[in-house]
Amino acid sequence: MFRKLLIANRGEIACRVIATARRMGIATVAVCSEADRQSKHVAMADEVVLIGPAPVAESYLMGAHIIDAALETGAEAIHPGYGFLSENPEFVDAVEAAGLTFVGPTADAIRAMGLKDAAKALMEKAGVPVVPGYHGAAQDAATLSDAAARIGYPVLIKARAGGGGKGMRLVEDADGFADALSGAQREAEASFGDPAVLVEKFIQNPRHIEIQVFGDQAGNVIHLFERDCSLQRRHQKVIEEAPAPGMTQEMRQAMGKAAVEAAKAIGYRGAGTVEFIVDGGNGLRPDAFWFMEMNTRLQVEHPVSEAITGLDFVELQLRIAAGEPLPVRQEDLGIDGWAFEARIYAEDVPAGFLPATGRIGHLDFGRTAEFGRAALRADSGVRAGDEISPYYDPMIAKLIAHGPDRASALAALGHALERVEITGIVTNTEFLGALTRDRDFAAGQVDTGMIGRGAGLNEERPDADSGVTLAGLLSLAGFLTPRDEIDPWARRDGWRAWSDGRHFARAVHDGAEAGHWITIMSGGRYHIDATNGAAEWLISSDGGNRYLLERDGRRRSVSVVRTEAGVSVFDRGRRYDFTPVDPLESRGAADAADDRLIAPMPGLVKRLNVSEGDEVTRGQPLLILEAMKMEHTLTAGFDGRVVDLAVEEGAQVQSGVSLMRLEPNDG
Hints:
single chain, alpha+beta, D-amino Acid Aminotransferase, Chain A, domain 1, 5 domains, 8-stranded antiparallel beta sheet
């Protein structure tokens, strides 16, 4: 076994690999960019090497620098994690040429599966079913458009290199093909340096089911059952589960056999995932699944498969890379229970899942384990105080729940999401909680279009009730203090010698200013005259920043967290923010930018479609902003004329800046 391992990655996956290496007694070396000097994976590793500035092209994609770091520190092997250089065959060749071990497949195996068109041709030869489509070399618009017409709409345009939904467009009819093609090609070029695409038939009731495989250096290959990754938005996974709902033993055997044959066809070793598109219209059938692609690396969602098999996949990777045989045979494997994984991202769901940036003020995942098998597990690469920057993926954590059956595992995931507390940044936690309560998802009726049809998005968010409002206002005014804050001069409980205290509390909540009278009585009792009704509450400390709210004999627990901006109250998975009122702030300031096009996120102005003085109509595309290698089109909100154009193509802009102003047409 290796004595020292370098991890050529960052964030959650770097922390995940370090945790297993530490348990196995392997010393670890982390690499980091300038932006990651104080990051969690740096703190966890035994040694650290700085490899460049923040942009990935100048740091985490600099294979030569990473190999030099391994040689200088005496590391014997390099684990690539996922993303970055994990599926770069030239990097694998360079690692091995330097006398180091690459923890993953051979460069030839990665090349065989690296381009989707070539991989599909190879799979057809191996007898693995593939989706009907065009996988040819000609990439001119006319050839691709003709291919789409022959295949029959709807079709899916996909970048032949890479994955993660980048360079992918669904096209419903011929009229939309040209624009979709150019957008997919630009995104593919930006993400993978390769604009080539393929065109495939779009399956109408698609499910995304993948098979985990492992191969050793002696040619043995096994599969570790399936994962259902159908719950997606913009072709990126949101919640994954294992096993797949509705899976029959016949279907599992057929898919497992196909995945093993796919891996054997390229002499695969290490961890890999064979992804299939499945027609779920009439149940899961052995004749209705097709090969999509193979990910020649560890997957983000691997913890759900670890949960149902009891195996540590990173340990398996390391042992196989060290030359050890697979420790189990196919007949030794079985499925234990059910597991879900929810990806917690810094993103603004109501704004269309736009990535968010900022500094995490408070971070608490409740009673969860980390990087190990447990009923509840939270794998995260960030801590309170860390910054989510525009340079890297905005994932904050993966929350994994394991139970004896699907219903109990899903209920555990929903409850765990209610205990997550994150301040300082916008997250998708409430959206994930809503998904766990979706009736169709709970029933196992899942497909890749669920979120597009509104799953998790149509749940009405309840307003803060008088108890939440009371807790927020009292804490903002200093009347509620954590139990561990024992300084008597810091505590304010509103005590009066002869009568009840009365306090007028003001705060900004949900973008509006509100003022409420609070009567502070004895014994932790409070009366609030709020806009949603008067009520009397009993508030007592539940330890730390948790408080019990009791009214009419009913009690519940909330968490109150002080932030730089004010106070956040967490109530059953929802966050309610209260900020102090600034008496000097202009009341009209919020409306001042109505005629301005504001950047909804940090990004690159990829294309500018208008010039100063141009007349535009409502809904007309004005510019394309690229963030996290994904394109976002910003459109005109009304008919008007472009004035005060403040950006040009190629400019890097921050969230909230004015890009241009539109002067409305008269009348």
